[in-house]
Structure formats: C-alpha cells, structure tokens
Amino acid sequence: MNGIFKDSNVLADYVAYRCARVHTTPVTNLQLQKMLFFMNYFYLCACSTHLFQEDFEAWKYGPVLPSVHKNYKNVGGFWIIPSNEPKSLNSNDVDIKFIDESIEWLLKIPAYQLVNESHREGQSWSKNYQEGKNIKIPKSDIEQDVKDRKYFL
After folding, report:
1. Alpha carbon distance 47, 25 (integer Å)
2. CA dist 24 to 113, 126, 128, Å?
3. Which of 10, 44, 126, 128 would you label with 146, given CA atoms 20 to 30 Å apart?
C-alpha cells in the first residue's frame, strides 16, 4: 500500500487551513501531526489505503511526518494560522467529505489525548520509538494497528 498524497504537505496545509479558517480552531504542529496520523488510520480502516506516501516516524511526542514538521517548525508550539488558501484537494484522489468530517471530529479531542492515544502500548509508535531517535514506522505496523483495532477511534 503506497499512499494517495505524494506530498504530505498538500493535505497538512488543507487541514491547518480548515482548522483555523473554517472551524476557527487553529492547531499546533503537534496537534496537526496527531490529526494527520489518525486521519491516515481512519482512511486505512475505511478504504484499505494510506493517505500518505511518506512514512511516519516515531518521535518523542508520537508519530510525525517529517516533511510536515519541517514545513511548520518555525511556528514552534504556537497556533498555525495560514494566511493563504491551500491547494485544492483532488476529489478524484480522496473523499473530501471524509477528510472534512475527520477534521471536525478530531478537533473535539484535546491534543494531549491524541498524543496519549498515539502512544498506546503494543501499537505502531510504541513498537518503533527509541529515545533520541526518529525511527520510521513501517506502513505494515500501522496496517496491523488497523487489523487489531488498537485505538479508541
């Protein structure tokens, strides 16, 4: 399973924009990362494919898409408030309603709870995390999470 988005930032920018400008609930880089991880999980559950071609990595505070972190690291721990509308998502590639509903639902969950949820023992992040290192989380581990229904989601 490859993934729909070759450039993870296309969806990340869309999510950050929708959170800040449509829902008036901006998110931090940390929260955005967890939302993207769980959106990928939801999509994998529903459609049997990953949203991202890029691999998540196991970082201290949970799964991270390195290119998205790099794109937003200058924001630090502050809110991401995009000034420009992002590129449109291609509705031939992804179900935009599914993405929008996932955003709406995940915004209701505090960032700390998303972090805690992503750290569940025996799931993909905990299998791969090593302190001080950013280890790639194999897509097969996330697929196993789906098979085992490891999350509250």
Report:
1. 28
2. 20, 33, 35
3. 10
pTM of the predicted protein model: 0.94
Q: What span, in angstroms and rounded, lies between the C-alpha atoms of 101 and 73? A: 26
51-69 b/e (C-beta count within 10 Å ≥ 16 → b): bbebbbbbbebbbbbeebb
Phi and psi at residue 64, to the nearest 5°: -135, 140
- The CA distance from 75 to 29, in Å, is 8
Q: With left for phi above 0 and alpha for psi between -120 and 50, is residue 130 left, alpha or beta?
A: beta
pLDDT in tens, 135-146: 999 999 999 999
SS3 state of residue 39: helix
Structure tokens at 50: 């990953």
Q: Report yes or no: 29 and 77 within 8 Å, Cβ to Cβ.
A: yes
How many whole angstroms separate alpha carbon 152 and alpha carbon 52? 22
Give the per-residue pLDDT at 48: 92
